[in-house]
Amino acid sequence: LRVPLEGLIMRSLRLRSIVGTTAAYIPVLLYAAAILVPLYYVFISAFKTNAEISLNPLGLPTSWSFAKFFDANNAVNLIAAEGNSLVVAAGSVVLTILFAAPAAHGIARRVNAFSTGAQVAFGLAFLIPQFAVLVPVYLIAVRSGLIQVPLVFLILFYAAMNIPLAVLLLVPFFRAIPKEIEESAELDGAGVLSRLRHVLLPIVVPGLTTVAILCFLAAWNEYIFAQVITNSTSYTVQVALPLLRSEGAFQGADVDLGRLAAGVVISVLPVFVVYAILRRRLIDAFAAGAVKG
Fold it and tell me: Are 282 and 213 in contact (CB under 8 A)?
């Protein structure tokens, strides 16, 4: 009886292991499906007519023509708008890091009332709703003359908007660096900026990558201020994309859903490219944060 009993126990343990593993993977698979199915739907819709989208929403298109992509670009100059968004997002990321890194380093290395108050002030910036500063921001753009160069103004504004988040994210990374490393560089004659550039920033690259991705996405996806500040020659992609929905709608024409889907695909491609390039460093950043915690 002992051998059958041991076999029964082993089978029971294997069954429990399989059930536990399956139960753990079900939420992951559901989450993946919730992300991938809409992406699949938008992508294949870019190759379909309105009738095909309505009758067979998840089925493959009858032909794989890229005409909808060319139509989307020709209708609202989407590629140019995407270029404007890239300039604004990249410029704001560079400015954000240039100002946030020294500020985070100062807060991390000085434990006093001023540094604590500065960190609290950066945190309080999140309590201000964006709509509350819409009119003042527009007035600043007009009175400073920067409304004539809307992309420059958006770079400055997005950087100012993202600096509080960047500082709060970078402070723990700088605090995790042993002071002895910086003191050793100081004994070798390195100044504050030299230590920051050549010693500390290479160590906090995972944190900088996290900041870069989050700030890039915030600038890329922002719509309200870009809508108010830009004009027809400086539209960002988020301002130009809705024009595909409204074009012809006021004349009673049906919206070309395939062309709209093609515009969405064009607008999200740079985000996927940026993520693909920085994915490894972002994972390293999360892993470093988990170890510090």
Answer: yes
Q: What is the mean pLDDT of each run of 10 residues along the chain (293 residues)?
A: 58 68 76 86 90 87 88 88 94 94 87 81 81 89 92 94 91 86 78 80 87 91 92 90 68 73 90 79 59 46
Give the residue among 71, 35, 64 at the shortest CA–CA distance from 48. Answer: 64
Burial 79-92 (b: 16+ CB within 10 A, else e): eebbebbbbbbbbb
Give the residue carrying structure tokens 């989208």: 53
Integer Cα distance of 63 and 44 in angstroms: 10
Largest CA distance in the chain: 91
Residue 214 CA to residue 204 CA, distance in Å, equals 16
CA-CA distance, 167 to 99, in Å (whole number)? 9
* pTM (two decimals): 0.81
Cβ-Cβ contacts under 8 Å for 259 (sequence gap 6 or more): 46, 68, 71, 72, 75, 244
Nearest to 207 by CA among 128, 96, 119: 96
Distance between CA atoms of residues 208 and 166, nearest Å = 8
CB 92 within 8 A of CB 219: yes
Q: What single string gives the DSSP state of each residue in 120-165?
A: HHHHHGGGS-GGGGHHHHHHHHHHHTGGGSHHHHHHHHHHHHHHHH
The helices-and-strands tally (H runs, E runs) of the chain is 14, 0
Task: Give the CB-side neighbour count of residue 273, counting CA atoms within 13 A.
Answer: 7
Closest CA to 211 of 85, 95, 97, 89: 97
Cα three-residue angle 249-234-213, rounded to 5 degrees? 100
d(CA 57, CA 132): 41
In the chain the first and final C-alpha atoms are separated, in Å, by 50
